[in-house]
């Protein structure tokens, strides 16, 4: 599905994943329009990125987030205020919103997950990224995940590794704790449909409460979503960068609170 932002926010159990493909260097007029949607502190953060790619990913992510929130509430793009939890996860602080989000970026793509449940996480990775599957899995994955990976022929290592990596990252992001959660202490069985997870007792979590989804985008990226919901339905929306820039550049489309 392609478009800008749908007229209504996701309903209960729905997660909308908005993806924007971003070129290595953004056209200057696009940068100017997207920056206009950001408050001063985010514009300053954007300016501090030393790497053009990372700067563009941050800018597109925050502009997309603000465009989505403002599409569903009469609030100016730059008026949304976010707070950070102890592990750095941003959430809407003001004005109140019934929509929760999580952002992920990788080279060339930003993914924004939006839903009604606060426990939503997303991860996006390039399918062609350089990986050392066995080496990294040995260090970070659970013993069951490592055994499952090693049992596969070499040609399947990359795909299984990225499946596990994106699911694990989506889960730790949905919990809002990032790498404070021990990656070895939960295991995914990515061959199962629906995907299953098992938690060690130390994680103090209930696998029955979680749902996961995976989507391979035709841009060569894989997205994983984790959500603590009874039933999960994921919709992916490709948002064109020029359409996003035009949307956030619209004068007076929304009013400030
Ligand atoms: C910080 C972390 C949450 C994500 O890092 P990442 O993979 O570099 O980045 P992503 O692009 O997927 O996500 C970054 C976004 O997540 C959000 N985020 C930051 N901290 C977060 C947290 N604790 N929980 C959830 N989301 C968080 C932010 O919105 C951030 O983007 P923004 O700063 O532009 O708003 C954390 O998981 C991490 O450091 N991971 C490193 C990678 C790794 O070792 N993964 C192991 C997987 S097996």
Provide tags for this entry.
binds coenzyme A, Ribosomal Protein L22, Chain A, disordered C terminus, 11 strands, globular, four-stranded mixed beta sheet, three-stranded antiparallel beta sheet
Describe what you observe in this structure.
- With 257 residues, this protein is of the alpha+beta class.
- It has one domain (14-248): Ribosomal Protein L22, Chain A, CATH 3.90.470.20.
- It is 32% helix and 26% strand.
- It has seven helices and eleven strands.
- A four-stranded mixed β-sheet has the order 4-5-1-11, with helices on one face.
- A hairpin with a 6-residue loop joins strand 7 and strand 8 (196-199).
- Helix 2 (40-48) runs antiparallel to helix 3 (52-72) and helix 4 (133-140) packs antiparallel against helix 5.
- The radius of gyration is 18 Å and the shape is globular.
- The relative contact order is 0.21.
- The structure holds coenzyme A.
Spell out the blueprint of helices and strands.
Elements: E1 14-21, H1 28-36, H2 40-48, H3 52-72, E2 81-84, E3 90-94, E4 100-106, E5 109-115, E6 120-126, H4 133-140, H5 143-150, H6 157-174, E7 186-189, E8 196-199, E9 211-217, E10 221-227, E11 233-238, H7 241-248
Parallel strand pairs: 1-11
Antiparallel strand pairs: 1-5, 2-3, 4-5, 6-10, 7-8, 9-10
